[in-house]
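Per your request, structure below.
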């Protein structure tokens, strides 16, 4: 369930300078401000489901959204996590296709919903905005290509080390060195593309090798250079 509408001023948004919206004119930004609706979603709610038609896209103000696909045997494959400043759902609008992923709230989230008609209007009328949308789509395609390459060429041990580095880069560490995203072992396995049992075993090995410390679901990175070397990220 979503909470009552909240107000977020686009001009005062701390994410504006680093988002596609920084390329809008003042009048276009005013139109976004007028057309959007902002709401708060509790953990475990869904924004949309794979295969459904969506009529708008989302800009995340705070919180974390899990984007995943469901395989033929019902197993989920996490595609990415979206957090503050990210936009999701836009590609389905541009391609005029059903949603290719399911979006689930995994940390209480505040976001703005912008109608599809406005996105299409801005793409057609603002060349700089449409170029930024294109760059964003290309980056996501590049990330997907890298994931396919990793699945084919890297060991599960290397992939897990790389995933921990990616999560650290996206969500940073708290003052104690813990990842600022809490995931189940099943979710970690879904990102890595392996069995949950393998992730549990490898995390224990990482702990024995003094790469990480584990406390419940929390993962503390204590040897980042060691993880980078293990991941072969920069080879």
């Amino acid at each position: 369930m979503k909470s009552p509408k909240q107000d977020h001023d686009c001009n005062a948004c701390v994410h504006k300078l680093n988002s596609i919206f920084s390329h809008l004119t003042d009048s276009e930004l005013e139109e976004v401000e007028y057309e959007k609706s902002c709401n708060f979603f509790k953990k475990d709610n869904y924004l949309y489901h794979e295969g459904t038609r969506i009529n708008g896209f989302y800009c995340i103000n705070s919180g974390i959204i899990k984007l995943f696909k469901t395989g033929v045997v019902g197993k989920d494959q996490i595609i990415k996590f979206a957090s503050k400043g990210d936009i999701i759902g836009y590609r389905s609008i541009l391609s005029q296709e059903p949603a290719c992923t399911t979006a689930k709230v995994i940390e209480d989230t505040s976001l703005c919903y912008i109608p599809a008609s406005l996105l299409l209007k801005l793409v057609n009328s603002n060349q700089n905005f449409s170029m930024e949308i294109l760059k964003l789509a290309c980056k996501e395609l590049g990330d997907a290509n890298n994931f396919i390459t990793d699945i084919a060429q890297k060991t599960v041990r290397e992939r897990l080390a790389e995933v921990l580095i990616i999560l650290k880069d996206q969500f940073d560490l708290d003052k104690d060195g813990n990842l600022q995203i809490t995931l189940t072992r099943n979710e970690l396995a879904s990102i890595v593309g392996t069995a949950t049992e393998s992730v549990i075993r490898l995390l224990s090995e990482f702990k024995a090798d003094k790469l990480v410390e584990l406390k419940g679901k929390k993962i503390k990175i204590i040897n980042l250079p060691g993880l980078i070397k293990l991941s072969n990220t920069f080879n």
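The mean pLDDT is 90.

Regards,
D.
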